[in-house]
Amino acid sequence: MSELTYAFSEGNKDLREVLGGKGANLCEMTNLGLPVPQGFVISTIACRQYLTENILTDHLINEIKNRVQTLEAQTEKTFGTGTNPLLVSVRSGAKFSMPGMMDTILNLGLNDDTVQAVAAKTQNLNFAYQCYRRLIQMFGDVVFEIDIKHFNQAFETLETEKGYPAADFQKADWLDVIARYKEIFAANAGQDFPQNVYDQMLIAVEAVFKSWNNDRAKVYRQLHNIPEDLGTAVNIQRMVFGNYSETSGTGVMFTRNPVNGTAALFGEYLSKAQGEDIVSGARTPDPIADLEAKLPAIYQQLTEIATKLENHYKDMQDVEFTVEDGKLFMLQTRNGKRTPKAAVTIAYDLFQEKRISETEMILRIEPGMIDHLLHPNFQEDELANHTAIAKGLPASPGAAAGQIVFTAEDAKAATQNGKKVILLRNETSPEDIVGMTVSEAIITSHGGMTSHAAVVARGMGTCCVVGCQDLHVDEDQKVAKYNGGALYEGDLISVDGTSGKIYLGQLATTAEEISEKLNDILDICDKHARLMVRGNAETPKDIREAITKGAQGIGLARTEHMFFKPARLKAMRQLILADNDDEITDALRFIKGEQKGDFEDMYDVLLDRPGTIRLLDPPLHEFLPSDKGELKQLAAEIGKDAATVADKARALAEVNPMLGLRGVRLAVVLPQIYQMQVEAIMEAAIAVSKRKHITITPEIMIPLTGTVEEMAMAKQLCVDTATKVLADANISLNYEIGTMIENPRACIIADALAKDADFFSFGTNDLTQLTYGYSRDDAHKFLPTYLDKHLLPHDPFQVLDTQGVGTLIKMAATNGKAANKQLKVGVCGEVGGEPRSIRFLNTLPIDYVSCSPYRVPQARLICAISEIERQSQDTYAHTNA
Amino acid sequence: MSELTYAFSEGNKDLREVLGGKGANLCEMTNLGLPVPQGFVISTIACRQYLTENILTDHLINEIKNRVQTLEAQTEKTFGTGTNPLLVSVRSGAKFSMPGMMDTILNLGLNDDTVQAVAAKTQNLNFAYQCYRRLIQMFGDVVFEIDIKHFNQAFETLETEKGYPAADFQKADWLDVIARYKEIFAANAGQDFPQNVYDQMLIAVEAVFKSWNNDRAKVYRQLHNIPEDLGTAVNIQRMVFGNYSETSGTGVMFTRNPVNGTAALFGEYLSKAQGEDIVSGARTPDPIADLEAKLPAIYQQLTEIATKLENHYKDMQDVEFTVEDGKLFMLQTRNGKRTPKAAVTIAYDLFQEKRISETEMILRIEPGMIDHLLHPNFQEDELANHTAIAKGLPASPGAAAGQIVFTAEDAKAATQNGKKVILLRNETSPEDIVGMTVSEAIITSHGGMTSHAAVVARGMGTCCVVGCQDLHVDEDQKVAKYNGGALYEGDLISVDGTSGKIYLGQLATTAEEISEKLNDILDICDKHARLMVRGNAETPKDIREAITKGAQGIGLARTEHMFFKPARLKAMRQLILADNDDEITDALRFIKGEQKGDFEDMYDVLLDRPGTIRLLDPPLHEFLPSDKGELKQLAAEIGKDAATVADKARALAEVNPMLGLRGVRLAVVLPQIYQMQVEAIMEAAIAVSKRKHITITPEIMIPLTGTVEEMAMAKQLCVDTATKVLADANISLNYEIGTMIENPRACIIADALAKDADFFSFGTNDLTQLTYGYSRDDAHKFLPTYLDKHLLPHDPFQVLDTQGVGTLIKMAATNGKAANKQLKVGVCGEVGGEPRSIRFLNTLPIDYVSCSPYRVPQARLICAISEIERQSQDTYAHTNA
């Protein structure tokens, strides 16, 4: 065995570095005993030698000649001479396939003499000369870059001149064709078409080597970080002909159904044809199943080979084969591409068939597939037939159609009349929640992937497109202009939350349901994961959704989301605008009753699973109307002077609300609110514990702490309140008090904070905002440019910034756990459901992630994958230590 | 020598722990050979013993009696008997003086017998019985808490009954007084006034010991972190009487003038009086200088003692003395309190007199003094005679009076008419700069210590009060209401920037100038400091101010401050609202010409001192008018459609401008601005270098970087631009490119950023905002509550948060310097001029601080103090290692 060339029987699939992907695979199939046309591989080592020395060495040339001689002996054919001439294909094949490389030359070995021998041997003049014509054309195209239209035009001209089709050509006609082809070749290549078949072969090999350094390949390698010095291999293989006879043909086959995963052969077969004929689509192939009747022996053989290949590769295979004169030849096998649904089904079935292990099954499923499986999508052909009128950021996946409304109120009114609506606004605010809930989809012209609209929509699993700058929305006039038209209230549109595109009219969708198989797989995932997964939810509907999707509890229930029902909002406004303690007490009494009901509803679904409830977080002015007229109306409603109310609203307004009076700061300035909330939580927990005969352990979370003193103060407030509630009820119940870690300072002083906390939960949205100094509401003005110019690898609100924010989280989690061994640590920001982020978080001393209910399945999968990969790396590191 | 009692000759000033402050000092003076009335100290050890055992031990009682016998021998008097009875004072004296402790009992040793002996010996019946009366009264008051009004009322009643004043009392009258006093004593104390003089002494000593644990003392110790177990000493000292004869008297004297520091005795003397008589103010004392004529020998002796004390204590002393019958006794000496001006003068003079070293001189000056010296203040009596109508936060020190205006335009107009104005607004914005510049003082009703108004005012050295919530300002109606009245345009008010108070009318001020002595001291400070001090300034006036005040360069020149002249503002607005590249280019061409002029003016003053110029930092919308009417007018001015301009303004508006499109992000989205600025800087540097025959090295600072990629990109933009300018000018000039470190992420990745930076400058304002998540503009809503409730030790925008922000700065400076040994590191935020912050920064690998020109002198002092203290701690640590 030389290292410059390998017979197929000498290589295997692990030698991709030396043999290239295609060559290694041909070797592997050969060794499996499959009927692969014989041949040999010229290695990447030979290529690298050529790229250095710019010449094919005599040593290599001799080896190639020896290999050809062996091939002659194996096939009982002779190369360039004799009555049974050997024809071969020459193909490139690098370790990674890349565009721009010289591809394929077929029928090499034909010249003016051998073509006649082939014609005689096959008794098929037409076949032999068609092969010869193709060789000259391909050789010219691939090696000398001669445009094949020159050849095709000449061929058509000759057919016209002759007055009959090529099928009726006689030898003289073919000699005319070949003569014309040679002229074209010589004129464009500057040399004659080589009649010496070794010249043909060596020129072709050299051309493959040279093509490693063509421009397209170079650019591709740079883009994909493929090393420049790998080089390519060359595969030389005996030709087989699917177009040789009536019992010849060619096919492409998947060992299972790549669309839905069913365990049956799937593919197409075209008789009397070569591979190109299937690809070109000139003739319509038959389903592979038809072969069972037509060529039963071949079908049987294919079935056996499929099983053999799956057993060997442990995955569904995509194979190419040719039948030459009733004999089957395998030309290619590789892991088959498949739809998300098929991927899940196949992985699960292979596991059930005991062909792969649990961890292998898990690693077969890509995170993105889950998201795809769980949301409806527009049908592919519908998308192909429609042009989007606008495109924004795909904030929440799914597909939906409905009539446009421009306000949350209109959304509510229209849906009460039984309409399906799409809410279209410049941006949304917490006041719009009800309208958002009833909408099929939400579009905003401003805002980024983590704007209010995006976050809320993902939380609800509602299709959403944000930052859709193509639409110029005038909410007052209820019109949205776009390049080429305008959208008015009531217009029917379709929204693709996966692509961010907006279409006129209603496109048909394809809804997918989470399958039982997926559920089984995710349960197995949970066994392998280290991180637990919780859901971010507060309504009974969302909590139920999260639990159904496999969340082990609730990581973030946002109590402010409970304040937007009209009666509550009014009470909240009364509280904010109160002039004295009595007014505050009255408003809080009402709100407490409502909140207690909310928490009871929550615990009725959640039962004794863990659930973290965050105390009020947003700035108070978010609860007031921003419009002057509405403020006036509010003043009248609650019986206050309009000017005074306007003054208070102005006093509450903030230049940078993100950095203002919110979170635990509310407890410092107006402790009654947290007091009321803790009472409501504890009373609800007591009531449901009794009613359901369970033991609920409330987890009360204080948001936005940044100093040890404020944490201690807020904790004391909670403890005092909870103690009083328990004493009044004469009952004992455990509860936990923790804090959301959302600002850099909290991360820095985490060790001190941990001493006063039962748990930490990282709020990565705010932490990212503060670490970078990016406002989620404003960053859309520059983040796209940052991403375009590669100044940021990702939108850090979507994918955790491991270098900056991640360093703070690591520091805080590590120091927090060191200071308090009992400390539970979670991550409940948007990135808690994102694959790359979870991979990183899995390496930290963190106990769980929490995300929107719709992202829970994906998160469960990634938690398992991350941990499996981490352990295998540990093992690897250990083995190599 | 026992450890329970010390004769004055046995102790010294270093034994404060054992002898208390007062006792240690009496010992020290005794050992200096000064005429101190003899006595002894009962130590804190005895006190601690008593506090444990609750009884005076026989051992202690015996020691006290022995000490008294020694005292009898020294004074040739006898205690409680004889013709020349020994009278003593009993005083408490802990290590730290504290309120609530039992204070003083005089004349102890008098009883019904000895009082007659004293009367006989002094031939002064009145004197003797006055002393006795006082003893009973003080003993009753101090030991048994008998209200002295009982004694005083009885005394007055007797005077009335007798019908003549006490001066005319005969023995029978005095016996009546004493009998009445004894009755009162017995009735209230539940025991007779002790006639045994040792009983008097031991009861008094026990009372002093007990008073260690009274409530006021305990609270005081808790508040001031004084250990509970120190205990107090007791001083027992022979009485001397300033009220004994015509050549008797008492005085209080400073060895130098404590108001202005002049090196001459300063103080007061009252003849025929005791210390209390001076303190009570019943009689007016004479200036100490009068003694020179009256009692020349005593005056001479005092002069010599003053010199001796200053030589010994190396500081100006505040002494108390008594002259008894022509003989001088020293009762007390301590370092004298003094005005800032005197402090500076005295420290400097003591250094010149070679009594103290350079570092001793520096450590004598407190940072706050400098600020006081450099700003005018209202006269003390003026303040005493006026009541403030409102109080806000003292944002920038000084005192000013003027007529109220409510807009920057009005300020400009009024000052052009020769008026002095106070600008009163809810808050200020960059548009108000011109109006702020011409105002005597600025008041805002909103905003905190680092609001726009506060920062700009401090930068200009203009008196400023912010967050003055007592004033309800209506800028439209031009009225400000306060509790009790209203202020209208044109009303004359006075503003105290040091206290934050506002007064009606014009109060007289006292202007102080920085003295030559202070300049000399600060120059000496520079020799001892490790950190250099630069100024934050951009106008020639401010730069000159900074240099005059001793800045070694400019640490922060904010280029956006240069954009607010009308023509420039218009061009800036044209740039922001441009529809195409031509409009951008036109606007930039104009602005560049202006900026180049600015930078030339800047370098003309700065010359080749280092100067860091920050490229444009604020969000673009800050340059647009916020008012709709003004926007419309602007559109007309620059010939654009009003609706389009309104749309653009709306698109630029931000929810959280602090976290929006600003700093280096501008360079990413609109690189032309930085390009223009770098051209202007480089061209100006070239022009001034040539004109002045110097070599300017521009320091160009990129604000707000948070990723390595944006730093690299912005740096390349600057380098390319600078290279082109230099090539065009055919000149070579060094320049430096650095970045402002303002967000937590920059701190975390500082090592990577440092590789691409010549310098770092920490922007502590923004860094603090982001680390805590506090908006400078909004935090005034909760920071006061945080400070009240001790949830924060200081306002972190005024005093660096060493634990949080400081940790980030330490990390970044350390890692930055490790990655790039050449890296220069500075701090240019508000805290760069604040004492506690500088102390911390001095411990980090930082090269300079930079602050408002007016704070430069103070910063120079603190830099020296910090380094001197650090080195002495190092030495200490080293010595003890």
UniProtKB/TrEMBL annotation, chains A, B:
Keywords: ATP-binding, Kinase, Magnesium, Metal-binding, Nucleotide-binding, Pyruvate, Transferase. It comes from the Bacteria. Residues 56-288, 300-354 form the Pyruvate phosphate dikinase AMP/ATP-binding domain. Its cofactor is Mg(2+). It catalyses: pyruvate + phosphate + ATP = phosphoenolpyruvate + AMP + diphosphate + H(+). GO terms for molecular function: pyruvate, phosphate dikinase activity. It is an enzyme of class 2 (transferase). Residues 516-863 form the PEP-utilising enzyme C-terminal domain. PANTHER family: PHOSPHOENOLPYRUVATE DIKINASE-RELATED (PTHR22931), PYRUVATE, PHOSPHATE DIKINASE 1, CHLOROPLASTIC (PTHR22931:SF9). Belongs to the PEP-utilizing enzyme family. This is Pyruvate, phosphate dikinase. It comes from Agrilactobacillus yilanensis.
